[in-house]
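thread: overnight batch results

M.L. [08:02]
morning all. the overnight job finished for the chain we discussed friday. pasting input first so we're all looking at the same thing
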Amino acid sequence: MDGTIPYISDIGADILKPLFITGCSITGIGFFLSLLIERRLRHTGRLEQEWRTRERVFGWLSVGSAFIGGCGLILLSVFDTKRYTTEHRLFLLIFILGVGFSAIFTCIEVHSLPPLLSFPFLMLTRPHSSDGFLNPTTTSSTSADSTSSKLSSLPSSFSAQPPLPSRCTKRPTQVGCWSG
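M.L. [08:03]
and the structure it wrote out:
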């Protein structure tokens, strides 16, 4: 036993290289596409829309960093550790930095959202069923009473519904404003 640690890149550089490249490619492309689709859903109003330019900028910076990280992952799988040690380590650094910056930008974007809209489970206006899950179709007197008792126990500075943004003309049925 020579005392070396077998890394996944060492194993992927051998007979499993086609499988390693395929897995890394699917992972890199899937990570990038998931953030890109999230941006698209936000733009079309299917998710909570951005209220500030800062949120939009950090969202696109996150997508760009995810693209760089995904490219780094694909390239580090192509340039294996047996034949291309320096290139492999360079693309590993690019992958780590890309994914790291993407996570940082996403955290900053979420942190800059309005407080109540960041946590939709805090909205106490919908009645709950006896098992604790949201049940918008049925209302019982016990769930309505429990909701009103929860609302009365909250501090006066807390409101159960967020204020309407200036571009909304009616109260949205869920988090965000889809119709103007």
